[in-house]
Design goal:
7-stranded mixed sheet; globular; 9 helices
């Protein structure tokens, strides 16, 4: 297997400057999701509302849109944020400051050093398509994340695929552009491979597609 370099890892998250994050609600969660990926953000918010717990870790936090808008099962959740990009951690921490989140800067392609208690849910939204490597080599992130999840806990999230989904003209063009700029790395990410990863790692799992976005969740056995 080709070794993933530090530069490749950094490339997928480097675009998220504070200026880009300030426009993220409109450009990505509004325009791109609705009209290009054909998966309105309401579906991703529903995924959060269905699976989020009061003891939650969010990985690849973006600008905190879904954590800000979702409904936690308690008014005082334990909330942790994990990302490689400090801008994302800073912006999201401020946006959901009412929950007193704790932020961790980690590379999820490597073994995660973490000495706190585990979590009952882990959100993993729009991360996989930014990671370098093939879909099957990216599966290492689940091996790295699973030790952070309590028995019976659930990982849920979404990713943009290229194989096994319907892509309109704009989706194909924009994905090609993002892949050339190393913003995305999903040229061969397939629905079949994602289903296999979920089945291999969880006792119970589901993958469904809306547009060219796969929404997934997996639950550990107790």
């Amino acid at each position: 297997m080709t070794k993933i370099t530090k530069e490749q890892v950094e490339a997928g998250q480097a675009i998220y400057t504070k200026l880009i994050l300030a426009m993220y609600d409109l450009t990505v969660l509004g325009i791109s999701n609705q009209f290009i990926w054909k998966c309105p953000s309401s579906h991703l918010l529903d995924l959060y509302n269905q699976h989020i717990s009061g003891n939650h870790l969010d990985i690849g936090v973006g600008n905190g849109y879904f954590l800000d808008r979702c409904t936690f099962p308690t008014n005082t959740p334990r909330l942790a944020l994990m990302d490689l990009n400090t801008n994302c951690l800073d912006v999201t921490s401020r946006r959901v400051a009412r929950y007193h989140p704790v932020a961790y800067r980690r590379n999820i392609l490597e073994s995660i050093q973490f000495d706190a208690q585990g979590f009952d849910s882990v959100g993993f939204n729009y991360v996989i398509h930014c990671l370098p490597g093939t879909m099957l080599t990216k599966a290492v992130v689940f091996e790295n994340i699973l030790p952070l999840l309590n028995p019976g806990g659930v990982i849920f999230g979404s990713t943009i695929l290229t194989v096994g989904v319907e892509r309109n003209f704009m989706a194909r063009r924009l994905m090609d552009f993002y892949n050339k700029k190393y913003i995305f790395n999903n040229q061969n990410d397939s629905l079949e491979d994602l289903k296999k990863i979920m089945e291999d790692n969880f006792s119970e799992s589901s993958v469904k597609t809306i547009g060219c976005v796969a929404l997934f969740w997996g639950r550990l056995g107790t």
